[in-house]
Amino acid sequence: TTRVEPLSVADVVEVWNEVKPPYADLLAWAEGHGPRPDTEAPGRFRQVMLAVAIDEAVDFAKMAPAEYAAEWKWDGIRVQAVREAGVCRLYSRHGDEVTGAFPDVIQALAFEGAIDGELVVMRDGQIAPFGDLQQRLNRKTVDAKLTAAFPCAIVAYDLLAEAGQDLRALPLQDRRARLEAVVTQHQGERLSLSPVVAFQTWEDLAILRADPPVGAAAEGLMLKRWDSVYVAGRPKGPWFKWKRDPHTLDCVLMYAQRGHGKRSSFYSDFTFGVWTEEGALTPVGKAYFGFTDEELKQLDKFVRDHTTERFGPVRSVRAERDFGLVLEIAFEGLQRSPRHKSGVAMRFPRVSRIRWDKPAREADTHDAVMDLLDQIERGGGRVAQVRS
C-alpha cells in the first residue's frame, strides 16, 4: 500500500531519535510500505509545542482572560528532561540530545516521566543572566569547575508523561496539576516550578509585562489556554508569546557588506556605531534584517553612493557628525564583551527604522549605551556576560 497523506515534520521528529542507520524502517514507513517504527523506548524525545507571537491589535479582542494561563517567558533555553525506566536524557527543543553537557542537572532528576521546561543558571534560588548560561552551551562535556561556577537547573512548565502514561492529550489544566505534584515531590536546586502569573484583565497583564517583578529573568509572557492539549508544532490559538518591548538606540551606519542568497547582489549586512566623547564612532553591532525589500534597495543605493573605502568585501560608508545615515536599532539586551572595542554587544539587533530625517550628530553616544547597560544590570532588562 502507498501512504495517502504525507508525513509531517513532527511525525518524523517524533521517531527520529529512536531509529538507527540505515533507516530502513523509517523509509518504509515514510513511503507507505511499512508500519510506524516502534518509538516506545524509554527516554525518547517528544516533539515540542510552540507558541505564536501575539498580535496585540487583533488577538486580545478575541480572547477571554479567564480561559488563559499566564507564565513568565524565562530567558534561558528550552529543554525536555526525560527519566524513564532508568534512562535519563536531556534534549534541546529540536530533539538534539545534550545530556553530556549538563550532568549536574540530569543526575539530580528523580521523577519518572518527561518534563518540558527552561534550562537556566540558578544561584540561591535566583535565575542568573543569560550570559552565564552561555558559558555552558555548545559543549559536549563539562568539568566540575564549570558546573560549580555556572550551576544549571530546570524551571518546569509542562508535564508530557508520567510513570509510563502519555499526558499530552490531557488539557493543560490537568497536566499542570500533575506537574505541580511532581515538582513538589522532587523539587530542589536543579528543579523548580514555573509559577502561574495571577491576573484579571489583559491590562493587568500588560502592566506586569512592562515591569516584571522577576526583573531580568523574564523576556516576556506566555499565554496558554487552560483547555489546550499538547500538540507538536506551532498551532494558532492555544499558545501565544508576548515578549517585552525591545530596547532601541539611534546608531550611525559605518560599514556594509553584501548579503547571501537572494540578497547577494545587495549590501544588506550593516555595521553601526555610536559617538564617543572624542567625537568618533565606535561600532556596537551588526544587523542583517528588519527592513523591507524597498528599504533594502534604498540602503544599498546609499552605501554605493557614499562608499569611502573598500576592505575586501566590506565597504566603509561616509559617517561624520555633519553627514551620515542614522538607523534606529532594536535589540533584546546588552552584553558586556571584552572582545568588542565598545565593550558591549547587542542581543538580536535589527533595523527597526531608517532615520533619513535625523542628523548623524544626534545619534546616541557610547555613554548612553553604558547608562542603558547599567540600568539593565540593576534589573530593568536583560543582561549577559560574553566570554572573552
Report on this model:
This protein is of the alpha+beta class. The chain has helices at residues 9-16, 24-30, 103-106, 130-134, 144-149, 172-186, 202-210, 293-305, 366-380; strands spanning 52-53, 68-74, 77-84, 87-92, 113-123, 126-127, 152-162, 165-166, 191-193, 218-225, 239-243, 247-258, 267-275, 281-287, 307-311, 314-317, 326-331, 333-336, 344-347, 350-355, 383-385. Mean pLDDT is 90; it is low at 380-388.
Proportion of residues in extended strands: 25-35%
Name the CATH superfamily classification of the largest domain. DNA ligase/mRNA capping enzyme
Main sheet summary: 7 strands, mixed
Element-by-element helix/strand order = HHEEEEHEEHHEEHEHEEEEEHEEEEEEHE
Total number of helices: 9
Return the structural class: alpha+beta
Distance between the termini: 58 Å
Mean pLDDT, nearest integer? Answer: 90
* Cα-based radius of gyration, to the nearest Å: 24 Å
| Poorly predicted ranges | 380-388
Number of β-strand runs: 21
The tally of domains stands at: 3
CATH architecture of the largest domain: 2-Layer Sandwich
Choose one word for the global shape.
Answer: globular
- If you consult CATH, what is the topology of the largest domain? D-amino Acid Aminotransferase, Chain A, domain 1
Q: For this structure, what is the CATH class of the largest domain?
A: Alpha Beta
Q: What is the share of helical residues?
A: 10-25%
